[in-house]
Amino acid sequence: MKIITILGTRPEIIKLSPLIPLLNNEFEHIIIHTGQHYDYEMDKVFFNELHLPLPNYSLNVGSHSQGKQTALMLQQIETIFIKEKPDLIIVQGDTNSTLAGALAASKLHIPTIHVESGCRSFNRKMPEEINRIIVDTISNYLVAPDNKSFNNLLNEGRNKEDIFLFGSTAFDATIRNKDLINSNKILNQFSLRNKEFVLVTLHRAENTNDLDKLNSIITALNELSEQITFVFPLHPRTKKIIEENNIILSGKIKIIGPQSYLSFLGLLSSCKFCISDSGGIQEEAVVFNVPCLIPREETEWTRLVEAGKNKLIGTNTTNIIATVKNLLDTTELQKIKDKKYNYEGGVSNKIINLITKIKNDSSNSGNL
């Protein structure tokens, strides 16, 4: 059975990292990297750190408008599919790479597994939301990370038999790699003390492309940096927008470059709490029992908010400041850390079992 996995961004590489070695062991497996993230530090280094094989195909698409980027991917992916004649396609998440891969497979009638199906913010102004909905509509096998995602798919008319409530591979990935972290090394590198800093990431278009929201968040960080150290690995696109619009970051905020996956996990595991608009980090933080404040009005990972492990704080300056100050209180912070959340493991093995069943069913029907 020949399987092609399509990826193109840091979250996809990370979340698929526990699945890829299993696919390589069990099947004829090909990786297509679209090059949606084109910065070396945010891309190739993850394959090296996570002991993953380099992609069989690198499309090097790079940064473009949403439509052009997706079209360039679609064109090249279709050509590869026609050449390789895969039996099954795997896509993950909600990126343009995910959309292009699923569209190409659908046009060529190749069965597709969508890992992380059914997640919804219910905000169609977000390009990721449109990607999720389309990919879920045209994929054959939907791997849902939680009950809410499962129910979202049912409410959208998908058959129950097409949905597989396995959990999130993000937890598999974090569990797999947490033993590789050298926290002391990363703390010494940036002259930090364990649990005495707040980690910040900011990259979503809904925050960075809206200058009012971006200014509001930065204003809050600047004021709060008088009370605690913020460590801010600056995403290249966020950095460009900040520089182009002359947005001032306080000199007390420790600005660092994009980090490798293991270095970032070292920072995440060692911080007091984090502020992030990243869905992946919201999940990773739970594994380390690090509260995550989310500068958005909604999140796809509502179960983590409802469990009390993460908290939506919006983008209003006053609200961000008040929430962060409250969390600087050790008692309030400990209340969140004391809340129990049993995250699932073994999701990648469940996906392998599903693929094996697909293979056996196809063999019995004479389709393979």
Molecular structure report:
The chain is α/β, with parallel strands linked by helices and 368 residues long. It folds into 2 domains: 2-168 and 345-365, Glycogen Phosphorylase B (Rossmann fold, 3-Layer(aba) Sandwich), CATH 3.40.50.2000; 179-338, Glycogen Phosphorylase B (Rossmann fold), CATH 3.40.50. Helices cover 49% and strands 15% of the residues. The chain has helices spanning 10-16, 20-26, 44-49, 66-84, 96-107, 127-138, 147-155, 169-177, 183-189, 205-208, 211-224, 236-244, 261-270, 279-287, 302-306, 317-328, 330-338, 347-365, and strands at 2-7, 28-33, 57-58, 88-92, 112-115, 141-144, 163-165, 197-201, 229-233, 253-256, 273-276, 292-294, 310-312. The strands form 2 sheets. The chain has a 7-stranded parallel β-sheet, with helices on both faces. The termini are close together.
**Number of domain units:** 2
Strand neighbour order, sheet with most strands:
3-2-1-4-5-6-7
Q: Span from first to last CA? A: 7 Å
Largest sheet: 7 strands, parallel
- CATH hierarchy, class of the largest domain: Alpha Beta
Question: Would you identify the CATH H-level superfamily of the largest domain?
Answer: Glycogen Phosphorylase B
What is the CA-based Rg, rounded?
20 Å
Summing up helix and strand content along with how strands pair, one would put the structural category as alpha/beta
What is the total tally of β strands?
13
Shape: globular
- Specify the number of helices: 18
Portion in helices: 40-55%
Question: What is the CATH topology of the largest domain?
Answer: Rossmann fold
What integer is the average pLDDT?
92
CATH architecture verdict of the largest domain: 3-Layer(aba) Sandwich
**Low-confidence runs (pLDDT<50, min 5 residues)?**
none
Beta-strand portion reads: 5-15%
